[in-house]
Amino acid sequence: MLRDPAERVHLSILEQNYRSDVVSPYMLLHSFEGKTIAFAVRRGDHEETVNGKVVRAGMVCLPGTNDANGVCNDNNDAQFAQAPIIEVDGTLRFGLPGTPLFPSLGEGALLKPTLNWLLQSDKAAQFDAELSYVTGGLTWEATYNIIIPEKGDALDLIGWVTLQNHSGRTFENARLQLMAGDVNKIVTPGPPMDGLGRGYGGGSYKAGGGGPPVTEAALDEYHLYTLQRPSTLLNGEAKQVEFLRAAGIPSKRVYLYEGYALDVARYGGSNWEYLSQQTEIGLTTNKRVYVMREFRNSQADHLGMPLPKGQMRFYRRDDEGRLQFIGENKIEHTPKDEMLRVYTGDAFDIIAERRRTEFKTDGMRQWMDESYEIKLRNHKKEPVEVQVVEHMYRGDNWVISASSAEYAKKESHTAEFTAKLPPDGEQTITYSVHYTW
After folding, report:
1. Which residue from 28, 82, 185, 296 puts its CA 20 to 30 A from 409's CA?
2. For the segment 46-56, what is each residue's pLDDT rounded down to a tens digit?
3. pLDDT tens-digit profile of 55-92?
4. What CA–CA distances, in Å, run from 164 to 116, 140, 202, 405?
5. Which residues of the chain have pLDDT under 70?
6. CA–CA distance from 33 to each of 19, 27, 86, 104 (Å)?
7. Is 200 within 8 Å of 313 (Cβ atoms)?
């Protein structure tokens, strides 16, 4: 789309022609078909020049490859059919006698791909026009560095955007705007682009300084982030810009134990009524206790800016003030006033075990009973609280008939128990669930 931003001139593009036939030896041979050019021929330790008429330029054909028509391959006849024909001293020969020496680039030769327009306007004018187009090769990703002090849970957060330009063009003094959101775009299969999986550290942490050089505004169903100063984005360059800085964010560490998760790949079949009654469901046990960091993206908690999805890295200062990396994960787009709960790793000093202690079923009367025992041990010197998540996969109609701990029904197939473990102590949770169908 091409327009005059001042709307003084009305113009339209009648034709748009893209040419990618850039200069190559065989392109130049085509432009000199029917003409005589010089060829450099090496004979022994010296080089001489012979003249030859280009009867046919031919095509570039490598053994084992095919051209667009599938003609050129290992077949000798097919290769000769595409080979150049050069007349030297009245004799025709297949192939080049030597290295061609072209007197010029030839008519219409291009050194790089070119876009040509045929324009129409209501009057003759000279002005700076605005060109809008969609391109590949320009990507950006948010990265968040979170610093936790050696004592306490108040967070300092620094947000960076990492821009990568693999479009083939350098943009000088560009005004950059970054859109966050899930925009639907048709993807055409092509050569893989350079991804964003590089280990950029997100820069250094410096206290003080001015506000972040990025502003945010809502646009349609998305959020638009505008860099306040122009920046040059070189082709092949990765650039990082700070866009968010906040300190003193209240947070809490959450321990979560999920003893069993259904293997959807194995049990996600259509005959679930039969599969749900199989005794092996629920027998496998996870012993890891997950460590989560939870905080709210609100203005009252010193945030409140829509956060684009990206990678979040966590660091904690040790007793000597040095930063130690303690985990990372990816977050999705997070509007303001929403809670973030980010998994950062597994607890070292909290161990959990889960086992089934009873299983009964009566297919004729359509009921089933299960009982489980969950043991949690805390090897820390301070008390901890663990949220124990249990999934009732076997049916929609269930009730916990007995339980040694308080629980909350989180959704139609999930109950959550709370275990409070003293220092160097343990707790056992038992419960029974009754299914009917």
Report:
1. 296
2. 899 999 999 99
3. 998 874 444 444 444 444 444 554 455 788 999 999 99
4. 27, 6, 14, 52
5. 60-81, 106-107, 181-183, 185, 187-220, 263-276
6. 21, 10, 10, 14
7. no
CA–CA separation, 140 vs 137, rounded Å? 10
The β-bridge partners of 232 are none
Order of strands, sheet of 407-411, starting from the edge strand that comes earlier in the sequence? 338-346, 290-297, 252-258, 384-391, 414-421, 407-411
Count of all residues that appear for the chain in the document: 437
- Please state the pTM of the whole predicted model: 0.67
Predicted confidence (pLDDT) per residue in 370-408, tens digit: 999 999 999 999 999 999 999 988 888 999 999 999 999
Please calculate the CA angle 283-287-293 and round it to the nearest 5 degrees. 125
Which two structure tokens, joined as six digits, stand for 66? 């095919």
- Report residue 87 as tokens: 């007349």
Tell me the CA distances in angstroms from 371 to 278, 283, 327, 401, one per residue in order: 15, 11, 35, 10
Residue 342: both structure tokens together = 């980010």
